[in-house]
Write a structure and sequence with these properties.
Layout: E1 8-15, H1 19-28, E2 37-45, H2 49-59, E3 64-65, H3 68-75, E4 79-82, H4 89-98, E5 103-107, H5 124-145, E6 148-152, H6 159-173, E7 179-187, H7 199-202, H8 206-209, H9 212-230, E8 236-244, E9 267-274, E10 279-285, E11 293-300, E12 304-310, E13 317-319, E14 339-341, H10 347-350, H11 353-365, H12 375-393, E15 399-400, H13 402-405
Helix pairs in contact: 1-11, 4-5, 5-12, 6-9, 9-12
């Protein structure tokens, strides 16, 4: 039942003042308008108080904090956004759950291997086992507190996915609707975040932090297919992968247009087999010289659906001199505006951020609503990613993850309802 929103104030807090924190703060000002609902950016925290102070002033946030726990106690937020360094994701989620935050928005990845903080080394199989055990503790804290977790995989929320789910609902009603083969890619020329090349802070490289993006919608679509047809999600059960350091082994001149990573992989490829014998293939890469590249292709028993999220040719611009564009970023990570480019207006909408935060707001307003990308997504994503590194370490050996994906069930109240995903197409 929707709460009475005639005079509702949602207190939103943000953890992190980098790229993710920035788009989180900006996105809350873009979500669909609701009469009588006030979305208030009430607090921000950072590892350095001066960063939080500067961020609060830039985005009109009520108060900066040096401590997450202090911010939670002072504000009692309705929505807490964990958009900080990956290593803090698990601890901050536990703190938010224990503070009774109704909706916790957790950026990818869910957690990093806890052994990093203990300065241990271990093989990938051990890292997988210990990471999944730690994530189980985190999710149990969330469930036990009555909080709801929105796992912030923005690719799940792009309008193209919403549209495909609309079509999928109709296809299943007509006796088809089986998703057979999915392909996806997320790539650019290397994250500028200082922590990215430090495994203890980032958790991994392109496989962990980029391949996760197209993986999310692939997992979601199989969840939606199973829920719509049989009342239960279709889960991933086997993984094979490679994770490579390409640029590190090239001549210095080859790295001119890239960030050459020394400690994490700059290319990852994952093949996922689902329990209905269908397949998904995703690539994460730091080898895109032309800026961000986000694409999905879905083959079903009723259609082929291609999503060219960024770039696409909806808009085309030619600039003989990049200076004419000033400081405008025509699309994410584009290294130069000179020449022909394909600008991406309203990029936060195109990449799903607005729909994602709108889901968080919908959950805050309706205590019975589950996020479309929730704890099931976080769990299965982590199982796939950690198994992918295990496979890569074993030269591409197929790794079975059914002990995790079949070994942990999620109650119906925590599962997404694809029928509530939202319509983007007109009807005749």
């Amino acid at each position: 039942m929707m709460t009475d929103s005639s005079s509702t104030t949602l207190h939103v807090t943000i953890n992190g003042t980098g790229f993710a924190g920035d788009y989180t703060a900006r996105t809350y000002g873009m979500i669909p308008h609701r009469n009588g609902v006030d979305i208030r950016l009430a607090g921000v925290t950072s590892g350095r108080l001066e960063n939080a102070e500067r961020f609060a002033e830039t985005h009109g946030i009520s108060a900066p904090y040096a401590s997450h726990v202090e911010m939670l106690a002072d504000i009692s937020p309705t929505i807490d956004n964990i958009a900080c360094a990956n290593a803090a994701h698990g601890p901050y989620t536990i703190e938010a759950a224990r503070a009774g935050v109704p909706v916790i928005v957790l950026e990818k990845p869910p957690v990093v291997w806890p052994g990093y903080l203990e300065e241990r080394t271990a093989d990938a199989a051990t890292r997988k086992r210990e990471s999944m055990s730690y994530l189980a503790e985190v999710l149990d804290e969330v469930t036990g507190s009555g909080s709801r977790l929105l796992y912030a995989e923005d690719f799940v929320y792009v309008d193209g996915m919403k549209g495909l789910v609309e079509v999928l609902i109709e296809a299943i009603a007509a006796g088809q609707g089986r998703v057979l083969w999915q392909q996806g890619v997320c790539a650019h020329q290397g994250s500028h975040a200082p922590a990215y090349d430090t495994p203890a802070l980032s958790g991994g490289g392109a496989l962990f932090n980029k391949a996760c993006h197209p993986l999310g919608p692939c997992l979601y679509l199989k969840q939606a297919e199973g829920i719509l047809r049989d009342g239960r999600p279709i889960r991933p059960v086997q993984v094979t992968a490679v994770a490579l350091q390409v640029l590190k082994h090239q001549p210095e001149a080859s790295g001119r247009h890239f960030r050459v990573l020394q400690n994490v992989d700059d290319f990852g490829r994952i093949t996922v087999v689902f329990d209905d014998h269908t397949v998904a293939e995703v690539v994460g890469s730091d080898l895109s010289i032309s800026g961000i590249r986000n694409e999905l292709r879905i083959i079903t028993d009723f259609a082929q659906y291609d999503m060219r999220i960024n770039p696409n040719n909806e808009n085309e611009l030619f600039l003989p001199d990049e200076a004419a564009a000033g400081d405008i970023l025509l699309r994410e990570k584009l290294p130069t505006a000179q020449g022909t480019s394909f600008p991406r207006p309203r990029q936060f909408h195109a990449h799903g951020y607005v729909n994602e935060m709108n889901d968080a707001v919908d959950c805050a307003l309706d205590p019975e609503r589950a996020p479309q990308s929730g704890p099931l997504m976080a769990w299965d994503t982590m199982a796939v990613l950690m198994a992918a590194y295990e496979s890569a370490e074993s030269n591409g050996t197929m790794v079975d993850i059914s002990e995790y994906t079949h070994g942990r069930e999620f109650p119906a109240s925590a599962l997404p309802d694809p029928r509530m995903f939202g319509a983007v197409f007109q009807r005749t």
